[in-house]
Amino acid sequence: MANLKTLYENLQRAFYARPSELKTCVELLAQLKLGLIEAGLLIPQGNVNFGDLVVARDILEIGALVSIRSKDIPSFDRYFSQLQTFYIDYRTIPNFPPSKREYPIRGLNLIRLLTQNRIADFHTTLESLPADVIAENPYIRHPVSLERWLMEGSYSKVWNAREEAPAEEYKFFIDSLMGTIRNEIASCEEAAYESLPLKDAATLLFFTNQTELTRFAQERNWQLDLSAGLIRFAHKGEEKTEIPKQRLIAASLLYARELEQIV
Q1: Most buried of the four, 7, 96, 248, 261, by CB within 10 Å?
Q2: Over the stretch 117-174, which tens digit does the pLDDT of each residue have?
Q3: Which three-class secondary structure state does DSSP give residue 197?
Q4: Which of 90-99, 139-148, 213-222 has the highest mean pLDDT?
Q5: Percent of the chain that is helix, strand, coil (3-state, to 5)
Q6: First vs last Cα of the chain: how many Å apart?
Q7: In whole angstroms, what is the distance from residue 119 CA to residue 116 CA?
Q8: Which domains does the chain carry?
Q9: Angle separating helix axes 170-192 and 138-152, nearest 10 degrees
Q10: Axis-axis angle for helices 102-115, 73-84 (nearest 10)
């Protein structure tokens, strides 16, 4: 445990540095997880010292937050799964201290489910939480509000929610949500308009400057007419389908004659 303690102290220093030393954190976390496995703390069994359990939980929580800051969602998923033992199984153990990071991380998991359009999983996960937590905890209320606004199509509220995020890590997922929303709005614009003023397009897509809009337009192969201040959408040629009228008429007459014979 002595080596594990040193690695843990180094992880805390790297994580709490301003800005966090993410590369160092990732390297230390890999070593610490091996240490937790050897110490029987990654998946605790039997009688384990509470102090050791708290350290193990803290390491995994830092790992989850580092994963978000590093934009590594699969890694976040793994850390969140490993934390369930501490958040669920150990909750009923008397005198086991709760974690201040539990609901921030649970909230991040809920937003992750939203960004992956896993609405059924979102509601199943939400139902596992106490009603008072859903109603009062700001880390849980935030994703609940996001889900409601997405279902309503209140995209401006989703956009404004970025500034109201209860933790910095939440903004990463909100940015991901906005990317999905922009693509949906862009598809509607392409179908509904031949062109749009640059200013209107930027407003509809929640861009704050023309550089962001220009980059997005290029990704979707839109034509920028800067002299006219317009975005022109590329429409695919309408496919013409030939309707075999003569065959349809002949078939209809045949069905009519057969019905007359039956009657």
Answers
A1: 7
A2: 899 999 999 999 999 999 999 999 999 999 999 999 899 999 899 899 999 999 999 9
A3: strand
A4: 139-148
A5: 65, 5, 30
A6: 91
A7: 8
A8: 1-99 (1.25.40.990), 102-192 (1.25.40.990), 194-235 (no CATH)
A9: 10
A10: 130
